[in-house]
Amino acid sequence: MRFMFKTDYEDDIRLFPHSGYVVSYGVLLALLAVAPFVLSSYLVSQLVFVCIYATVGVGLMILTGFTGQASLGHAAFLAIGAYTAAYLQQYNVPFPVYFLAAGLLTGIIGALVGFPALRLQGIYLVIATISFAFIVEEILARWESVTHGNEGMRVKTIQLLGVPVSRDSPAFYFLCLGVLILTIVGTLNLLRSPTGRAFVAIRSTYRSTRSSRSRSAPPSPDSPAACSRTNCPSSARKCSRCSSRSNSLS
After folding, report:
1. Sequence spans of domains, the chain
2. DSSP assignment, residue 66?
3. In the chain, what percentage of residues exceed pLDDT 90?
4. pLDDT tens digits for 190-211?
5. CB of 181 within 8 A of CB of 116?
6. What is the CA radius of gyration of the chain?
7. For residues 203 and 159, what is the distance between their CA atoms, to the nearest angstrom?
8. 160 - beta bridge partners?
9. How far is the C-alpha of 85 from the C-alpha of 159, rounded, in Å?
């Protein structure tokens, strides 16, 4: 195990804490680069799904891992982006345009859902997010004129710079891998920024608040700390110990 001692701000915001990270990530990237040429088409298709779900998982990690807020409705945002891209593709919209439009629309809907849920936390936030997931599922299943219901939408082959990118081709695998790498690098830079530090502060503040509340809980009426006529926790009536002491003194 290697211990890192950070002595200045530059050490704290460095993308790679030490050279070992560069070597390990470089080896991993090299293995992923040669994977489509040495593995079967089935395994490559599974790696494509890994890249897609890992991209979604990075977004969930920001919310749950760094901000400390629970969510069970993350799949709903994935569905919104996917159906938006498939819908715009039917009208021959270029891939870069509907790819960015899907992310933009998903972010707008996430903001609309997030603002009312600002005051929710814990199990109440979980209930709100899973309710949103059920609502999106019902809308996508019943809005058959747009989403084709439970049958789903068929998508065409991606056209990237006028070149078709088949789903089974190595180019599609590298496209998904590139999106994942950009997402991870963008997330790391976000967490090093003041906004990312604010996310981490939300989690730390919530934990410290719960800890301080548990330490500063008022004593029970029958505890020795509350057994004083001048410090009785109830102004309307005395606690049992105060009442007994008052009777004995009288």
Report:
1. 17-215, 225-250
2. I
3. 34
4. 888 888 888 888 777 755 555 5
5. no
6. 27
7. 42
8. 163
9. 13
